[in-house]
Amino acid sequence: MAKNTQPVLKRCRTLGVSPAAMGYSKTSNKNPGGQRRAKKSEYALQLTEKQKVKFVYGILEKQFHMYYEKAERMGGNTGENLLSLIERRLDNVVYRLGFASTRREARQLVNHGHYTVNGKRVNIPSYLVSAGDVVAVCEKSVSNNRFKKLKEDDAFVAAPKWLERDKNNLQGKVVAMPTKEDIDFEIAENLIVELYSK
């Protein structure tokens, strides 16, 4: 299985993404991009936007292109469909519910089979959840120190409005489909659509 091993904070600086969007730091960086050349070409802007989304969600090119093609077939706004599909990935849902501190950690926990969707164990990070699905920690895993600590932890992680979180039972419910407003970092999805539609 291919995986991204780039240094996170260095890549955040290059792409102009706040490390807080990755779950690595709660303090917002005022100028995450550092000093850069003032003018970028149209292609460079489009490519940077695509790389930003791929990096934040930890998706490689082949899979990302498949999401784009699926979003295009769905009808409606392709860019918003694409973001909705990516946001519905199980590893992202686990992270957004606060059951993992980063998306990378969430992917590893899903791979190790610590979560169920509607009572069935799922170990595929790219599994797409739907409205009404219940994502929970497996019964076997609840006794694990990591999840015990999560239950006792007083720090409240605010779940986005499309998810409902039950901390005491270590589960969450997908109450609606995610929209662009639910994404916790700025993204110009129209640039990604322009890049792929060339």
Automatic annotation (TrEMBL):
InterPro entries recorded: Ribosomal_uS4, Ribosomal_uS4_bac-type, Ribosomal_uS4_CS, Ribosomal_uS4_N, S4_RNA-bd, S4_RNA-bd_sf
Residue intervals of the Small ribosomal subunit protein uS4 N-terminal domain: 3-87
GO molecular function: rRNA binding; structural constituent of ribosome
Region described as Disordered: spans on this chain: 20-41
Top-level taxon: Bacteria
Residues of the RNA-binding S4 domain: 88-152
A Gene Ontology biological process term: translation
A Pfam family hit: Ribosomal_S4
Keywords: Ribonucleoprotein, Ribosomal protein, RNA-binding, rRNA-binding
Record SUPFAM superfamilies: Alpha-L RNA-binding motif
CDD domains: S4
One Gene Ontology term, aspect cellular component: small ribosomal subunit
Family from the record: Belongs to the universal ribosomal protein uS4 family.
Subunit-structure text: Part of the 30S ribosomal subunit. Contacts protein S5. The interaction surface between S4 and S5 is involved in control of translational fidelity.
Function, in words: One of the primary rRNA binding proteins, it binds directly to 16S rRNA where it nucleates assembly of the body of the 30S subunit.
The protein's name in its UniProt record: Small ribosomal subunit protein uS4
Organism the protein comes from: Candidatus Avoscillospira avicola
Gene that specifies this protein: rpsD
